[in-house]
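Quick one - inputs below.
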Amino acid sequence: MVEIDGLLQGIRDRNTPALAKAVSLVENARDGYEALLSELHATVGAAHRIGLTGPPGAGKSTLAERLILGYRTRGETVAVVAVDPTSPFSGGALLGDRIRMESVTLDPGVYIRSMAARGALGGLATTTTEVCDVLDAFGFDRILIETVGVGQSELTIAASADTSVLVLVPESGDGIQVLKAGVMEIADIFVVNKADRPGAERLVQEVDVMLGLRSGNAYRRMTPHHSPREMGVESPVAADEGWSPAVLTTVAVKGEGVEQLIDTVEQHYRYVTESGELDTRRRERLARHTREVVERNLSTMVWHEGEGERILAAGLEGVVQGEVSPYRLAQDIVAGIRKGGSAHE
Amino acid sequence: MVEIDGLLQGIRDRNTPALAKAVSLVENARDGYEALLSELHATVGAAHRIGLTGPPGAGKSTLAERLILGYRTRGETVAVVAVDPTSPFSGGALLGDRIRMESVTLDPGVYIRSMAARGALGGLATTTTEVCDVLDAFGFDRILIETVGVGQSELTIAASADTSVLVLVPESGDGIQVLKAGVMEIADIFVVNKADRPGAERLVQEVDVMLGLRSGNAYRRMTPHHSPREMGVESPVAADEGWSPAVLTTVAVKGEGVEQLIDTVEQHYRYVTESGELDTRRRERLARHTREVVERNLSTMVWHEGEGERILAAGLEGVVQGEVSPYRLAQDIVAGIRKGGSAHE
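Output:
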């Protein structure tokens, strides 16, 4: 535990090499990682976590770069966790691998980390939350969680953020399908990026229709808040009726609409803080995380510490031959865990 | 267990209402579902399972309809399991909900079932495998597993098939991103659907480049096997060097290329059967399934039968206040399972 103590001290001292070591320890579930996270727990909770998700090619990384610069101009420190759940290798399209801006990479107020699915114990979503906890405890003001894709794993990761931003582009052509695919419920802010391309206004309208913002209210279709320059940041919110998801447009490569996006993200954060929704979300996140840790510990007990692998290997041939069912073999393995050693009692 | 015995008899008698009841029992994890699956296990294994995956809008459902008709013409019975991992409701775009072809729905040799993620115990991939096991035991010759999207959950489901088909379309525009996103490793056959649209030939070339079929071999770029009509079914295979993924083109709405696709799927099935790869895949599937059943049983023990929920509820406030870490609380919950009742011993 000497190493853990050193890392904890390094994090308290805001030492970046110690941070990088701590993140690696957690990401790879090396000895002592749960002890480290356990010690850090009391100091987690000050950072604002912002999820950035959307289909490949939507320009999330470019937008993330612009958000970093915008936040730095406002004096906020920013960490980025770029997650690719579908890639067994480090995803080439992710911000962490492609960023080449010296203004960002040499700035101690910015930290960028790529994570890839490499059979993370207990799942990538759990590990992502834990890496964010380390960054949060270190003291970053904002944590951007960038995910590629809109599958179930990506949605789970996005749902762990305080504010979820979904990025779409006109040419993806499947805006509506994406929305149907369960993202509706978790996105707080919708961004139509590359809004200078054909089809942007139509996509904004489709999103609005999906959101029901304008159902039975067609005359509002051309209100100015969909223009990047004129868009008001007050309009999407009605605090007394809950948060109405905002629909914004950006041209990330030119920086257009980025300030408004940051304003809206901040506005959402104020809304969830003042309404008490942030406390509710964080309580749910902690309950979910505790459940995940329990299941990961059980999995470790049965497969890494217990007799599970031996019983499985011994019984598999019978299952293949149809003599024993997987359910019968599973019962034998589960019975073993209760009769097993007392290391965890 | 009277109900289970009745369902088992109904499945042996190839009674379709009994099949529907058995599938519902398994899908909803109702009392006795593991007993039913355990009894069926010895008779599972004759069906050829074919995964059909790809981005929304790729035309998978239309292709599935055509495959059903093609297999029926060849005298094979077909079951379809349409899975939407990202949808909490039954996905509107899935075959099960949109098929209106009387020739198919009134045919007792065809069975179509939609499944949606509704917090399935132990995950949708596990439940999908179990539903396929019921259909397999019932005696269907072919089982099509259709998934929407290319996220991690979808890939896990696709990887459980004997033959995995990835469907792409020219206008999706993110063919290469999809390929980067981990699908490469699991697809046995690539289909460029809507191949009469602009960009189809380019997408075929991109897929080929990704597959390395033509690296350093540029002169083969225009070989005729990419034309729907002329495509040979022998070309993609070299049995002595393993299976080289095939790249086919289809226009599903017109039925073009569908016969060649079925031929290639059959060819892949012969290849995996004769090479012994099918046995390897099924052994891995059974090992993976046994692991999943173990983890599901552990989860049930801790959350549904044990004291886990009570300990979590009692300790959560301390976690929220930062006084107790999720890791400490998780240890208390895990300790409870070992001291708990003996129902499973």
